[in-house]
Amino acid sequence: MNLFKTVLLVGSGGAAGSILRYLTGRVISRYWPISFPLSTFIVNITGSFLIGMLAGFALRYQYTDNIKLLLITGLCGGYTTFSAFTFENLNLLQSGNIKTALLYSTFSVVTGVAATWAGLCLVK
């Protein structure tokens, strides 16, 4: 595949995913202004569910590499955010909220894996 086309597909999906992440975070923060990093948690869990669904659809409907690059690598990669997750955990730890950091880390990983599995199972 042409490298330029690949970069355009991943970049387009990533741009859309980043915009969706930003808008989702704004809505969540506006209606649920709490100290727990709920926006990042919800984005990462819904993104995990979405990537599971897209992977299932890709298997079922034989998605082309272009579609997988656009939706899975680009869109889901731009939408979810591991860097924000780790930064928020570091902030929680540095501010002495050790229990919240442990809860957030554990709940995010367990729920994220479960959401990916659920999304995959839903469409298989």
UniProtKB/TrEMBL annotation:
InterPro entries: FluC. Na(+) binds at residues 77, 80. Na(+) is not transported, but it plays an essential structural role and its presence is essential for fluoride channel function. The chain crosses the membrane at residues 31-57, 69-87, 102-123. It catalyses: fluoride(in) = fluoride(out). One of its GO terms (molecular function) is fluoride channel activity. It is found in: Cell membrane. It comes from the Bacteria. It is a multi-pass membrane protein. GO terms for cellular component: plasma membrane. GO terms for biological process: cellular detoxification of fluoride. It holds the Pfam family CRCB. The keyword Transmembrane applies. Keywords: Cell inner membrane, Cell membrane, Ion channel, Ion transport, Membrane, Metal-binding, Sodium, Transmembrane, Transmembrane helix, Transport. NCBIfam families: crcB (TIGR00494). HAMAP family: FluC. Belongs to the fluoride channel Fluc/FEX (TC 1.A.43) family. Fluoride-specific ion channel. Important for reducing fluoride concentration in the cell, thus reducing its toxicity. This is Fluoride-specific ion channel FluC. It comes from Flavobacterium cyanobacteriorum. The lineage of its organism: Bacteria, Pseudomonadati, Bacteroidota, Flavobacteriia, Flavobacteriales.
